[in-house]
Design a protein that fits this description.
Length: 422
């Protein structure tokens, strides 16, 4: 099935995500047409040395079988790497739609490779785009696979893992980081890890937290397997509580990490609303994890929020979206895959004659406004500090226009963060 895709590429794909595992190598076994995108990603992020391809031809599918092609191709890659140095500690072997359609025997493939190269951790990853519309997406399965080989070690009550997303949270924009670090507890993210040995110590945390729904499946499975307390903490635009760490409850002198009050946050948003008055505001789901929650919060503060660009409200925002239909019927949803968006005349019908503030790159492109916040996945922001961080970005966006096409076409915003020294 053909589907319209906006020319907005700032989200991370499976290449970016797997590159977060230091010293790891990726092998893709698929036809050349499918290889183009992942090859370009690896080269664009300067990580070609950690990336290999096995091209599958039509003859391979007819005369040979995919099991043999996959095993022999992966083995050739490993032998070439070994000739130039040591084996990588972990290899992500990506299979594709062809493997699924032809019922490839994955158990046989990985059993053979693990027996042949026992010093390598072989991870089964997927690039099966035909599974995009039902079940788990390839990136969700990858975020599970990348933690499955991490062993249980001792539990350190001074470490909390913040996993499942690709952006970096800071004590300036995230209540979780600010609060726990004020208690002397380290909040560890994948961006803090630079060697494979460090990566294998992820199992020593006293708590795992995920702020991104696409990471929930993998981080929850990782937590359950190792018996680590787990919390999915989605960044709603509300007054959110933080879970206490059991062993920290006895700490007598606690502070709130310098967090502002929710009333203070709302007051600052109202002040900004008075500045921009009735300026149309559009929000997209690439920039904001909970776009309907932000829309409701801003509407309650008097902003003129007109559109949300999203595939529709996910389950965790259904109640908010239904409430908005009743309280703010003027708010509309634009589907990112709507083929009418290809047509400039249709996009013009959506656009306002007034200066428009866009929160997100998709919103900037659809509404043709240079006044936009350029970020993905909340940019790591959470809670009251996160709301204030976004507010500052919106203030900057309305006064400092950006070139739309030069900005939103950049693939994998911030992806240099996951490039390790080869």
């Amino acid at each position: 099935m053909l589907e319209f895709n906006m020319p907005v590429h700032e989200g991370w794909n499976i290449v970016h995500i797997a590159m977060q595992v230091p010293e790891g190598h990726q092998i893709y076994v698929c036809p050349e047409n499918c290889l183009r995108g992942v090859v370009m990603t690896a080269y664009e992020m300067g990580a070609a040395g950690r990336f290999s391809c096995v091209s599958v031809s039509e003859r391979d599918l007819i005369v040979d079988n995919l099991e043999t092609v996959t095993i022999d191709g992966a083995s050739d890659v490993v032998e070439e790497m070994h000739a130039g140095g040591e084996f990588p500690p972990v290899i992500f072997l990506f299979t594709v739609c062809s493997h699924r359609i032809l019922s490839c025997d994955f158990d046989y493939v990985f059993k053979t490779l693990r027996e042949k190269y026992p010093d390598i951790i072989w991870v089964h990853a997927y690039m099966d785009c035909i599974a995009q519309k039902e079940g788990l997406y390839p990136d969700m399965k990858l975020r599970k696979a990348m933690y499955e080989f991490i062993p249980k070690t001792h539990s350190d009550e001074k470490i909390v893992n913040l996993l499942g997303s690709e952006v970096i949270a800071t004590k300036e924009n995230n209540d979780i980081v600010a609060y726990y670090e004020s208690q002397g507890i380290k909040v560890r993210q994948l961006s803090d890890i630079h060697t494979f040995d460090e990566y294998m110590q992820l199992g020593n945390a006293c708590m795992n937290i995920c702020m991104y729904k696409s990471g929930d499946y993998g981080v929850e499975a990782f937590s359950e397997r190792l018996g680590i307390p787990y919390h999915l903490m989605l960044p709603f635009f509300e007054d959110l509580d933080l879970p206490e760490i059991e062993k920290s409850k006895n700490i007598t002198e606690k502070n709130n990490g310098g967090l502002p009050t929710f009333s203070e946050v709302k007051e600052k948003y109202r002040e900004f609303q008075k500045q921009i008055e009735n300026t149309p505001v559009v929000i997209d789901s690439m920039a904001i994890v909970c776009p309907y929650s932000l829309a409701e919060f801003m509407l309650d503060q008097g902003f003129n929020v007109t559109y949300v660009i999203s595939d529709g409200a996910p389950a965790y925002e259904k109640e908010i979206a239904e409430r908005l239909e009743k309280t703010h019927p003027q708010l509309h949803t634009v589907l990112p895959a709507d083929p009418r968006l290809r047509e400039e005349t249709y996009r013009r019908k959506l656009q306002s004659d007034k200066k428009t503030l866009a929160v997100g790159p998709m919103a900037a492109w659809v509404f043709n406004t240079p006044y936009f916040v350029n970020q993905i996945e909340n940019d790591g922001a959470y809670g009251k500090l996160g709301m204030l961080s976004l507010l500052e970005k919106m203030k900057d966006a309305v006064t400092n226009p950006k070139p739309i096409e030069k900005t939103v076409l950049q693939k994998g915003i911030g992806s240099s963060r996951c490039c390790f020294t080869l």
